[in-house]
Input
Amino acid sequence: MLGSFFRKPKSTSQSGLDIPNINQEDRSEIARPKFGQDLPPEVPLTVQPTKQPLLTPENIALISILLLLVSGTLGIWSYYRYHEIKAIRAVEQKQHEVVVDSLSEVKAGLEKHLDDLESAFTDLRTENGDLANRLAVTTKVVEQKDALIKSIKAQNTRDEKALREQVQQLQSVVDRYETIIRVLDQKNAVLTAENNRLKGVTDSLTEEISDLGLRLESQIRRTMSAQYKATGFRVELERRNDKLTQRASKARELRIYFDLNQVPRNFQGNQRFYLVIADDFGRPIPCENPINVSIPTDRGPVAIEAQASQLQNVIENQRVEMLYKLEDRLKKGSYVVTVYSDKGPLGVASFRLT
Output
């Protein structure tokens, strides 16, 4: 293989000149000079020496040695550099784990402390039910802090920056909770005594209101005609999903059922029924479009303010249903429902919301 670099190239002609072929049809004047024409003097022929190739075996060997030296040096440097960086990162990771573990312990301690503070706050509110209403700002702050605590507890992170932020937030919550509890402790003693007094007043008012409701119902019954009245009243309060309820905050619809039995012939036929809903003091509940009519009674005409009405074909015996969708939420307490017709009062019932 190495001999190929020193092998002499084969010459295509003896003199190195391009001598035309005399057998070709198109002959030049050199091959067939004209008679009598002088020939140019002969020029000595020279052969150019062959250039030495660049990639000689010696050069290739030298380049290979240099490349091996550079590669070896680079490999050794990379090896030591890799282990140096690995050792530095191991130290940093160990320090990071120590910091993270410490922050996690602080976070866990703050969360436990907050649980104790929440229990103490709940005990205070249980001891004095009116305390949260008295301190509306405090209650709002507690609700915000509860949401923040739940959010932080749900985040199980090992990131040092995030843990520092969580610890700072939890510490802020702890400080605020401790301040709130100190304020509640101071207010609780005063409010407990006031609550006891208000409870006595409330019980007294409840008894008076119940008596007023009974007297109102009795008075309405006395105004009704003895020949034509409704019986078997049932009042149902429904929520949005058609389930029954007695909660004032949940009630959305009011259904009244009653029976008409042995109705005289002169009271039968198409009539309009009116539904009146009033509180214990006889005040009609608010309504956007109240119906104001005058109803005849045994003691003379009576002006009423009804919340709803419906056209009813009255027969001798039947079960009647009336529906009213509450426009506004009713307050807690007792209410009286009265049903009237064009002929006079039909009946009355009462219900209570808690």
The helical segments are 57-127, 131-134, 136-154, 160-222.
